[in-house]
Amino acid sequence: MAILTETTEGPLVLSVEQVEEIGRELDALRARITADLGDRDREYIYSVIKAQRGFEIAGRGLLYLGFLPPFWLAGVAALSVSKILDNMEIGHNVMHGQWDWMREPGLNSRAFEWDNVCPGDQWKHSHNYMHHTYTNIHDMDRDIGYGVLRIDEGQKWNPYYLGNPVYATLLMLLFEWGVMLHDLEVDNIIQGKRKWSEVKALLKGQIRKSGRQVLKDYVVFPALTGPLFLSTLAANFTANVVRNIWAYSIIFCGHFPTGVQTFTKDETAEETQGEWYVRQMLGSANITGGKLFHVMSGNLSHQIEHHLFPDLPANRYPEIAPEVKALCEKHGLPYNTGRFSKQIASVWAKLFKLALPPFLVKNGPQAGVIVMRRGQPSEVGV
């Protein structure tokens, strides 16, 4: 497997032995963390759940005083934090199976449902399986553009993409709905590559789950506040939008800033475990920040570590990140990380740039890596 274009100094070449060594070291790191899971991890996830529930109760309570603007704003803020924690540090990670080892029914990946319109089982297929197995492989990983955006130069341009920034803004504001529709592959249905009859079961699940969410947020809880129905409805809507913007921003910073690399099916065929690890490191990016920032991001601020070990408890990612970074430095691999403002700015710059026809855009050099296979290099990447 080989990756990307040459730098001014030429591509970095990883030997078969180096790739195998990377695989062994990461396997050993995973085994060590798995063997060490225990009480401090239990205490961590229980504390996050307690905090999430506390913010939700506080938010619901404050909205009974929603006729006073300070209380309405405080209620929205508390509900927003609650929804972010539920989706990012609890829901996303629980459904990855990160807490299955505890044998706690409420944290079982097969049964958990989050506060989101997307059914958990559909999300686990589109995200856990398709995205994490085929990370950044064109025509396999539908997270490359989500069937809506041009986010990589390997996607063929057409005039539709002139609206790239508009589509991205709508996806950001309505992110939970975009996630819900993701598994339908609506773009393929429109192009005739998939029939509506093939997604009937998916649609039924989506209608059932989204119906419950709409009923809860926009009927039941507003009704419980009586004459403040509209005030509470607006608060719930606002909290959902805040959560959507935050989740979108964290996820896009981890997958699409400058320097993140993509691949083709031919280039990644018959991939070894070591090559899979290398692809995950080259196809992901981290965000620097403090402990609270990492918790609020679901520790997806450590997207590189998450892609390497998606079923390890996310609270361990900050602990292993220095080792992963050192491993990258040892072999000359890029370790893409930066502050939130830098990463999100590069994502939006890319969205605007890739909206334009290729002949109007000048592409700069990218870091190059060639991973040797037995006998000769096989050049991979775009």
From TrEMBL:
Organism name: Nocardia acididurans
Protein name (Swiss-Prot/TrEMBL): Acyl-CoA desaturase
Domain annotation Fatty acid desaturase: ranges: 71-337
